[in-house]
Amino acid sequence: MGIETGIVYRIDDQDVITYVNEEWDRFANANNGRSLMSHRVLNRSLWEFIQDAPTRGLYRQVLKRIRDGRCVRFHLRCDAPGVRRVLAMDIVGSENGGAQFHSRILSAEPRTPVAVPGTGTDSKELLRVCGWCNKVFIGGHWEEIEDAVEKLQLLQRSIVPALSHGICDPCYVAVKETLTDH
């Protein structure tokens, strides 16, 4: 993702994705996200891509804020197997009750590639991962992905569990504070 341009996408007043910039497809393609290419996400509801209730709730609050004339900014992790990335996300209102999302890379740090859970179509097991910091919920607490790979022996498995995205308590609190501070 270009640091200067970043990824931009827009939703309408019904939360349907109506626009993605060229960087969207470049980023999806570079990160094995073929299922997220523009032709697969355009004209679909944003909510089809946000699965868990706490994250949906936060995004609903964010959208209410921006539709009331405010802008919202937060940081989130967006890792690849060999890179740890921190992104800044800016969300602003657009005409007719829509919203524009703009994310850009703040930092990218190479790391030893780790197994990234896939679609897990053959696995009944789910790994809960925070959509903001990418920590994995195991043993009653949140762990960095590298630690989870080792503890769960993901590299030794023939089938890696599917992901279930959520939000950890510290990230939930941080995003909630973002909504009340502005």
TrEMBL record:
Give the molecular function GO annotations.
histidine ammonia-lyase activity
Record keywords: Lyase
Is the keyword Lyase in the record? yes
Listed EC numbers = 4.3.1.3
Q: In terms of domain of life, where is this protein from?
A: Bacteria
The EC category is lyase
Quote the protein name from its UniProt record: Histidine ammonia-lyase
